[in-house]
Input
Amino acid sequence: MVRVRYAPSPTGLQHIGGVRTALYNYFFARSQNGKFILRVEDTDRERYSDESLEDLYATLSWLGLDADEGPNIGGAYGPYVQSERIELYQKAAHDLVEKGKAYYCFCSQERLQELVEKQKAEKKDVQGYDRHCSTIPLEEAKKRVANGEKYVIRLRVPVEGETAFDDIILGHIKRKNRDVTPDPILLKSDGFPTYHLANVIDDHLMEITHIMRAQEWVASVPLHILLYKAFGWEPPKFCHLPMVMGNDGQKLSKRHGSTSVRDFIKKGYLPEALINYVTLVGWSFDDKTEFFTKEELEKCFDIHKIHSAPGVFDYKKLDWFNGQYIRKLSDEKLSSLIYPYMKESGINVDEKDVIKYIPLIKERIKVLSDAPLMLRFLFETPKYTEKEKFLAKKQELPEATLMLKEAERAFSNTEDGEKTLSDFANSNGIKMNNVFMPLRVAITGESVSPPLGDSIKLLGKDETLKRIKSAIEFLQK
Output
């Protein structure tokens, strides 16, 4: 049975790259009738935060990624939080020492720092520990440990030969052992394991069959293979996922915009849209299909269709996806999603009344937080601050003022002011935008708004005329 895991470290908020890793693991497990395991790798106590852990659980819940085993679920291979497995790691590390596969190291921080400086000065290709304590006889080392001397446990990395493995995406990879980090620490002086030790032990004991993680971990695999061999275990299959890049070809980061899922949720993206789009950043079913429900991806996801090249995260494409998913919502559902944004923005509206404004914005909003920006003019009189905003392209201020006066006459004297203005424009050879742009800004305060005619109907004749007159006064100042 396929068993995969998502094993984040709660040292920061969940970001797009991490979520994609979770999605790929989840969909692969579901497509193979396997198990999706959540494991919390919290041994980095200096950077650990409760906020990050809560964000992890909240993000997976929002996405609907239900783990089969995990910290809040249980399972036969627990505990699923690494800080609750410390004794297990300690025992395993000491067992490796007994087998001669690892050793106690007593080097001080001062000595190690001097070594680093020396290697930098000598410009050595492979910098790392010089195996200073590797020749200490085991019995002597044990006595020093018993006497309370501070120590770490290091892996004995072979100097000769090479280590190779096959990656589902990247193919066959091999590395000379002399190029692997020399004798890395497995167990730190505080008794906590390093990532490498805990990761290998947990993946083996939890019977993980496939490791799907970011390509940045490829360099660590030879070391992990050596650890598996030291324990006498068979390694799982490896599948290192391509990086998520920005449009500039650089790794996606905060400089490209929001990357934490919390930010996307706050802005008003739908989980269905984020799941659909993020899954396509590095994977495709075929050359044409773009829209997938979560349930469809659970069935059709194919690990062999993951791309080897980096995926590009395009914010505009995500906005488009989100807009498409918003259009599919019923007016009732959309109004219930929009109401909290209206309330948070200070707009005083009853929840039951929001639905009547949905037709104005449903075809236009990209994210839920767009709604109060587009609808505020219905609840508050616009504040005019820039005369240039009233102007259509290549339009002068006197003409814009004249168009507003014409609009005032049209809405004062006719039942259908919008049609009257259209007829006026056609009969006088005036561009429609030159007539309606000044009016749009007068009514809504913005040059881009919901449909003008529907907006005017909702405002009513009196309020419409009031705003037109105010705009004329502003332009004539």
Observations:
- Residues 92 and 169 are 31 Å apart (CA to CA).
- Residues 1-71+242-328 form a domain with the Rossmann fold fold (CATH 3.40.50.620).
- The chain has four domains: 1-71+242-328, 85-241, 330-380, 381-476.
- The first strand starts at residue 3 and ends at 6.
